[in-house]
Design a protein that fits this description.
Number of strands: 6
Mean pLDDT: 75
Shape: globular
Oligomer: single chain
Strand content: 15-25%
CATH class: Alpha Beta
Length: 189
């Protein structure tokens, strides 16, 4: 799973900033919802509840795994749990990272769409930078979410729903695995 997201970031398809323009050692911002997935639903639970749990679990594990892969690829990851320390003015630090990063990966699952105003804010800032010609490569990763659902959840102003997205179907991924079958598709909305 991490490999396919990294390939999406490193460059299949057009973008406001081509991967070749992102210098080695540049900072890559990881945007994600931090809410834990809760207890695993019972096997007899509503299938939608199971899909949401799988997607939430995947988003959290992917955020952690991406940090390691980004370092191995020669970039510097910026993720709140690793970058912030006690006493930091977290909102100021997040804003500074959003304005200075050369790239970003935005992990979006239903729980994040429903509950994270921070990810909505981060998406808006990153895509605003693209519109004012402040170079940043942004790759949305849709985990069990369709591009159409982004507009329904208030992401239209950020225009993230118009970006080339990497789509992951949580039904074909084992949440604890580091990779998944290549059935996940890239989608352009």
């Amino acid at each position: 799973m991490v490999t396919s997201v990294t390939r999406a970031y490193e460059g299949e398809g057009p973008g406001p900033l081509s991967p070749a323009d992102v210098p080695e050692g540049a900072e890559v911002f990881i945007s994600y919802g931090r809410r834990p997935p809760g207890d695993r639903p019972d096997a007899n639970a509503d299938p939608a509840a199971i899909r949401r749990w799988r997607a939430r679990t995947l988003a959290l594990s992917l955020g952690s795994a991406l940090e390691k892969v980004i370092v191995a690829a020669g970039y510097r990851p910026w993720r709140d749990v690793s970058a912030l320390t006690d006493g930091d003015q977290f909102a100021d630090r997040i804003d500074a990272a959003l304005l200075s990063c050369a790239g970003a990966i935005i992990l979006l699952d239903h729980d994040t769409l429903d509950r994270s105003s921070w990810v909505r804010w981060e998406s808006a800032i990153l895509t605003w930078r693209q519109r004012v010609d402040a170079p940043v490569r942004v790759v949305p990763v849709l985990i069990g979410v369709t591009p159409e659902e982004l507009e329904q959840h208030g992401y239209e102003p950020s225009r993230i729903n118009r970006a080339q997205a990497h789509v992951i179907d949580p039904a074909v991924v084992i949440p604890d695995s580091a990779d998944y079958p290549p059935r996940a598709d890239r989608q352009h909305s």
